[in-house]
């Protein structure tokens, strides 16, 4: 598929998607706009004052809170990222939406996925698991972006990546392996260099699969 073909659905969504197009009422449209406006101003108190408007499955609030205070709220942010295919609707939907004021909600396109990859590389608890799962639960531009970021995270936290990979089902493992197979030659060398010696038979099998993917 050409880059233009991949970009067309995204361009269409960027032109047509507003927060209210996700089934939100005008009141929610205004609420989301206010929430992210306060988040981009790093006004944590003002963001927290809106918490009661959002239920526990609504990713908008933990995302806004993280934008407002990334160092202090990274754990809450990571824990709120869906571990299943709802990540495309609940997270990507916010990435492409704009508020009632016409401004993008997040600081940059694919902000959540970029920050997740960075958190995984830094060893934030739960981030590596969610990054690996996201590689199998996403598609299109998100899947491509995650594949680009995954090798760096694996090199930075190879032992953790191997352990999380070992605990995944076959479909998700295959998605991770497909990403690693597309890594650059330099990235593959680094992955081989940093993968730790497996301490169990199961980890040895997982490591063998990873090494085969980057041959």
Describe this structure in words.
- There is one protein chain.
- This protein has 215 residues and is an all-alpha fold.
- The protein folds into two domains: 10-109, no CATH class; 110-215, no CATH class.
- 69% of the residues lie in helices and 0% in strands.
- The chain has 13 helices and no strands.
- It has helices spanning 3-16, 26-40, 44-48, 60-68, 70-80, 87-96, 111-122, 127-137, 140-156, 158-166, 170-181, 185-194, 201-213.
- Helix 7 (111-122) runs parallel beside helix 9 (140-156) and helix 9 (140-156) packs across helix 12 (185-194).
- It is elongated and about 55 Å long.
- Residues 1-24 have low confidence and may be disordered.
Task: Provide a brief overview of the structure.
The chain has 13 helices and no strands. It has 215 residues and is an all-alpha fold.
Please render the helix and strand layout as text.
Elements: H1 3-16, H2 26-40, H3 44-48, H4 60-68, H5 70-80, H6 87-96, H7 111-122, H8 127-137, H9 140-156, H10 158-166, H11 170-181, H12 185-194, H13 201-213
Helix pairs in contact: 2-4, 4-5, 7-8, 7-9, 8-9, 8-11, 9-10, 9-11, 9-12, 10-13
Descriptive key words:
single chain; 215 residues; mainly alpha; 2 domains; 13 helices; disordered N terminus
